[in-house]
TrEMBL record:
A Pfam family recorded for this sequence: BcrAD_BadFG
Domain ATPase BadF/BadG/BcrA/BcrD type: 5-300
Annotated signal sequence range: none
InterPro entries noted in UniProt: ATPase_BadF, ATPase_NBD, Euk-type_GlcNAc_Kinase
Source organism phylogeny: Bacteria, Bacillati, Bacillota, Bacilli, Bacillales
Species annotation: Paenibacillus sepulcri
Protein's UniProt name: ATPase BadF/BadG/BcrA/BcrD type domain-containing protein
Transmembrane segments: none
Length: 307
């Protein structure tokens, strides 16, 4: 019996979603990293081979019965990455229709059900992606934490640390961010921020401080609110840029907001939705109810319908 597979190929883990040709979920599996920019091509080949072998074992179906497969993974929507990964899947025995695309497109389909609209990601970093039904694509953001990623968790966290230090110096008014961040990271003196930022913490640790900013905002801290408002404004700017680039302003389009900031900081999501819908009333803002692997499987299924 024929089936389709969608894979959300992450840098630390991957999720495989298998569905039948009527769109019914058969099962999901988790595997290791399958992003070629997070690990070697050889490791990606090994992980995908194990994941597909496990799929065949659980389902009792041959990989030759896979009518279509879609891999969604960050940074792999250019010709070079597609060529490399197509070779990997060929070695794994995949002979059906193959789609290799950015994970943002898989998230878009997971949220909207179709390959048209906008994905706005705010996790550790930030990134905006848009696609129309003609296949035109646009991007905004995603330049990394040193020169971009505005509105993402790292940007919120490092800005909060700067505000705490400025408060300690007396260059800004007192803020709850100072004692709350010190407590969160386990330091007793502000001078220890130096060791924490420059030697101890990586991007995920600093990004995790976004939740402290939200807690400070809920406690009434004005500086924390301004940091969150600045993040919202950056995310709105990304959204508006993509809307104008693909001429979505006067169309019924879905904007899918995905990532840990939108999931855990309700203020950012709600405020962004207010700003977008005030300026673009035909744009629907929502969080995806299903994961990116499901979206990738839908892309695989839809690829058969186009044949």
């Amino acid at each position: 019996m024929k089936y389709v597979i969608g894979i959300d190929g992450g840098g630390t883990k991957s999720i495989l979603h298998m569905m039948d040709l009527d769109g019914n979920q058969l099962f999901e599996l988790q595997g290791g990293p399958t992003n070629i920019y997070a690990t070697s091509v050889e490791e990606v080949e090994r992980e995908l081979s194990e994941l597909l072998d496990h799929t065949a074992e659980i389902s009792g179906r041959s990989i030759a019965d896979c009518a279509a497969l879609c891999l969604g993974s960050a940074g792999v929507d250019r010709p070079y990455e597609k060529q490399v990964l197509s070779g990997v899947f060929e070695k794994c025995g995949v002979t059906g229709s193959l789609t290799i695309t950015h994970d943002a497109e898989a998230v878009l389909v997971a949220g909207s059900g179709k390959q048209e609209g906008i994905t706005l990601v705010s996790g550790t970093g930030s990134f905006g992606f848009a696609r129309d039904l003609s296949g035109n694509r646009a991007r905004a953001g995603g330049w990394g934490h040193l020169i971009g990623d505005e509105g993402g968790g790292y940007d919120i966290g490092i800005t909060a640390i700067k505000a705490a230090i400025r408060s300690y110096d007396g260059r800004e008014a007192p803020t709850l961010l100072l004692p709350m961040i010190m407590k969160e990271i386990g330091i007793e003196r502000p001078e220890l921020f130096l060791q924490y930022v420059y030697k101890t913490a990586g991007k995920p640790q600093i990004a995790s401080l976004a939740k402290v900013v939200y807690e400070a905002h809920l406690a009434g801290d004005g500086r924390a609110k301004r940091i969150l408002d600045d993040a919202v404004n950056e995310l709105y700017l990304m959204s508006a840029t993509l809307i104008h680039t693909l001429h979505f302003k006067d169309r019924d389009i879905t904007l899918v907001a995905n990532g840990s900031v939108f999931t855990h900081i309700h203020y950012v999501y709600e405020r962004l939705a207010e700003l977008v819908q005030a300026e673009f009333p035909r744009i629907t803002v929502l969080k995806p109810a299903r994961n990116a692997a499901y979206g990738a499987a839908l892309i695989a299924l839809q690829s058969l319908q186009k044949c």
